[in-house]
Design a protein that fits this description.
binds magnesium ion, Nucleotidyltransferase, domain 5, alpha/beta, binds adenosine-5'-triphosphate, about 35% helix
């Protein structure tokens, strides 16, 4: 069930995130991919927080409605978790076969996982090996967090088939969609997904996640500052920040000091967070410098964020990830469609959907 690999059977990708549930189902279309179902169910603040579903009834109902409204008949789903529910460690062990490692992984893991080993699901992937040693990616995920998501899925009549991490979905999305020619390219890519409460950072080199980190940081920090500074409720703060009207069509203009007092400092914080990860990565990987930074998640929609980050990081080209340009979509992603403007927020959901189909 906890799979770093593929199931080779279509699954619906479900990204349970703090702003809402993102749903995607894909099929191959020639050499590309086609989105056959997709949708977004917004959730009230706090329904999902800290990687946990806090209000199971609300989320389960929203999920049922989302699947029904989009006429999704596939029941098998892939879902992911992130943040403090997950520990990823790259460890070096004496070389043994995969089967042998399956038998000993729990004992090996006890040394590296700061949780009670009984309380986590464990998985591993052998990254590379010599006759003496091998690098192993060890992943532990808290059982209670997984169980929490499973109850919601089962409550909505769905069958959980694949559990993944946001970070690996982003890696998978990079390999299959952003740069399917990665094997021939010399690119060392950082895929960075800046959402509402978590920022995922994964560096992919030669098809392998060389570095992974979740920062508990996102637009929530900016939105809280906006609420405080201008005495607004959560909904109005979001309208001000995105420049988009709320459901009633009301617009909240950005005050003249918004850019200098709130937005620029927030962009500075994003840079600081990313620099922390990339400096840490560089220190251990001088032979594999990051060449390209791919930016996804809702915060990548902040105007000017890509040139800002490019000016901060020397020698790294910063590109926006636009999933709906990279895969075939229908009217839903066009102007007037329900997912217009959502594209970079769907990288994890599509990465999850690809788990069932891709090599
Ligand atoms: N058009 C836009 N312009 C600027 N910012 C935007 C825009 N649309 C969304 N955002 C920001 O992106 C956030 C949502 O991003 P995203 O969907 O990636 O987060 P999430 O996946 O729900 O969060 P998490 O995974 O951290 O729980 C919104 O809360 C908002 O702050
Ligand atoms: Mg997210």
């Amino acid at each position: 069930m906890f799979s770093l690999g593929q199931s080779f059977k279509p699954v619906v990708g479900l990204d349970f995130s703090s702003s809402g549930i993102k749903m995607a189902e894909v099929r191959p279309a020639g050499k590309k991919w086609k989105l056959i179902h997709s949708g977004f169910a917004p959730l009230p603040p706090g329904a999902i927080a800290e990687s946990q579903v806090k209000d199971k009834e609300v989320v389960s109902q929203a999920l049922k409605d989302l699947m029904k409204a989009n006429k999704v008949s596939t029941k098998d789903v892939a879902f992911s978790v992130n943040g403090s529910a997950v520990i990823i460690k790259k460890i070096q062990l004496a070389t043994v076969s995969e089967l042998e490692l399956e038998d000993t992984i729990v004992t090996e893991a006890e040394e590296y996982i700061p949780f009670d080993i009984e309380e986590v699901h464990l998985d591993f992937q052998i990254l590379n090996s010599t006759p003496e040693n091998m690098d192993v990616l060890l992943v532990a995920c808290k059982k209670d967090v997984v169980q929490n998501h499973m109850e919601v899925l089962q409550g909505a009549g769905l069958v959980p088939k694949i559990l993944d991490l946001d970070l690996f979905c982003l890696g998978n999305f990079y390999l299959n969609v952003i740069n399917p020619n990665w094997a021939k390219s010399q690119e060392n890519a950082a895929i960075i997904n800046i959402g509402a409460s978590v920022t995922n950072v994964v560096v992919m080199c030669n098809g392998i996640p060389e570095f992974t980190r979740d920062h508990l940081f996102g637009s929530r920090h900016l939105l809280e500052d906006i609420q405080r500074a201008y005495d607004l409720n959560a909904e109005d703060a979001l309208c001000l920040q995105t420049g988009l009207p709320n459901e009633a069509g009301k617009e909240i203009p950005q005050p003249p000091d918004y850019d200098s007092e709130l937005l620029q400092p927030f962009l500075g914080q994003i840079h600081q967070q990313l620099a922390q990860s990339l400096d840490f990565y560089s220190a251990g990987h001088q032979d594999k410098p990051v060449t390209t930074l791919y930016l996804a998640g809702g915060c990548s929609l902040i105007p000017g964020i890509a040139p800002f980050l490019e000016s901060q990081f020397n020698e790294i080209s910063v590109k926006l990830v636009d999933p709906f340009q990279l895969i075939e979509t229908g009217k839903e992603s066009q102007p007037g469609g329900p997912l217009f403007g959502f594209s970079p927020r769907f990288a994890v959901a599509i990465g999850l959907a690809l788990r069932g189909m891709s090599q």
